[in-house]
Amino acid sequence: AVVVQSSAPQCSLLLFIQPSSLLFLLVCSVFFMSFLLKPTSSLASRISNPLLLRSTLLVQHKMLSASIIGGRESLVSDVPKYNETLSRVEDVPIFLQKIYPGVPLDAMSASRLGDGVTNVVIRVKFDLDKISSECIQPILSQSILLRIYGKNTELFIDRKREIANHLRLFDHGFAEPVIAIFANGYVYGFSPGRPCKPKDLKDPFVTTAIARQVAKFHNEISIEDNEQPHAFERIRSWLAKIPEQYTKDENQALFESFSDINSTLVQRTEDLERQVEEMGAEHAWCHNDLLLNNVLLHDVEGEDHPRVSMIDYEYGNCNYTGFEIANHFNEYAGLSLQDLDYSRLPNKDEQATWITHYLEERKGREPTSEEIGHLLEEMNVFIDVSHMFWGVWALVQAEVSEIDFPYMEYAKVRLQRLNH
Question: Is the dihedral of CA 389, 174, 310, 183 positive or negative?
Answer without folding.
Answer: positive
